[in-house]
Write a structure and sequence with these properties.
It contains 13 helices and 10 strands. The protein is α/β, with parallel strands linked by helices. The chain starts with 6 loop residues before the first strand and ends in a 15-residue tail after the last strand.
Length: 287
Amino acid sequence: MDGYHPIGIFDSGYGGLTVFEHIRRLLPGYDYLYLGDNARAPYGARSFEIVYRFTLQAVRKLFEEGCPLVILACNTASAKALRTIQQCDLPLSADPARRVLGIIRPTVEALGPLSKTRHIGVAGTAGTVSSGSYSLEIAKLYPDMTVTGEACPMWVPLVENREHDGDGADYFVRKNLAHLFASDPEIDTLVLGCTHYPLLEAKIRMFVPENVTLFFQGPRVAESLKEYLFRHPEMSSRLSENGSCHFMTTESGEKFSEAASLFLGCSVDAEQVQLTDRQFNRKNNVR
């Protein structure tokens, strides 16, 4: 579509909608195109190679749809695919000025003033925790901090299947948080290191100590994007500003629309799309 250059937002499923909602609220004038790879969610237990491959397919699709800027609103994709795409793929693309940004770095940047004990807990998917991305980024900015991660493999399926308010969620949330705080009782700040987890907020608050601060990524990622666009007017000028929102999914459009409408509190009409390799290889994989 001529003149249509939206901000692309990608997640493996519905969780990225929690980030999208904050971005849209803070920056309502831009056009947005959300892509959820719901047919292949969750990404958490998948290998680095597969997460990179799937994420690259999604980035390529959003580029083809006219997005000059893509936000990976997925911690697993940010942990396992972002660096390779930024360093190896974008420089070889047809338009090297396009950008792909993640959500781990802006999250970490905000942690400094929050923790008094300097002990940070990170709840995330198995992929995010095993990647060590949070520990590495926190060590760069705040070497005095101690980081303890807890893989929570059932939390995303609970949200994706809309069981996050059910009794079954209590068991898994209690189990993971009990293990995390037993591992380090000095934790006073808990990063919800998956964009699905805000949907579990009520359950999480039931099982964390009262002195623990929960850190939600959505508001910080939105503020970080606003700051980025202010610092990079050359990117801001490329983006179209009609205030529109469009949605794509690799699952049934009807199924996505029904669930996304509950997440966002408004009607959503999603288009089903396919993501393919298109002769995928590391040497020539972004067009």
